[in-house]
Amino acid sequence: MIKNIFNNSISAKVRRWIVFSLIVVLILFTILIIIEDNKAQKKMLDWDFAGIITNIKFNSKGAPDIVVNHKTYFLPSSEWQINFNMQKGDSIVKKAGTITIIVYRKGRMERIVF
Predict the structure, then answer these.
(1) I need a surface site. Which of 18, 63, 68, 112 has the fewest CB within 10 A?
(2) What is the pLDDT of residues 13-46, one digit of tens each?
């Protein structure tokens, strides 16, 4: 009964228009996500910092927000497999144009490369 009411109240032309509109919105949304992801990756590639981690907070997925030289950087775990291997007081180096992060452990002769 409900199906018949729905089919009778909306013409085939209107249904096609609704489906077409939803497809267009999904395509535009996908394009927007791809563009924003590329912008974020370029921004991370352009980072150039070296210093001591003065503050670090890990989110529930293990991705840290680190403070180096009074600037905060979000290091997504999808780009670097960090897995809680950084600590406050560690030295960190990230050169522009590379995705490599090098961490030197505080108080140890240990070098970790991500």
Answers:
(1) 18
(2) 888 899 999 999 999 999 999 998 888 788 888 8
Burial 55-65 (b: 16+ CB within 10 A, else e): ebebeeeebbe
- Smallest CA-to-CA distance from 56 within 3, 106, 110, 1 is with 106
The domain locations on the chain are 2-43, 47-113
Q: pTM of the entire structure?
A: 0.58
Question: Using CA atoms, how far apart are residues 44 and 96, in angstroms rounded to an integer?
Answer: 8
In order of 34, 53, 71, 110, the CA distances from 50 in angstroms are 30, 9, 11, 16
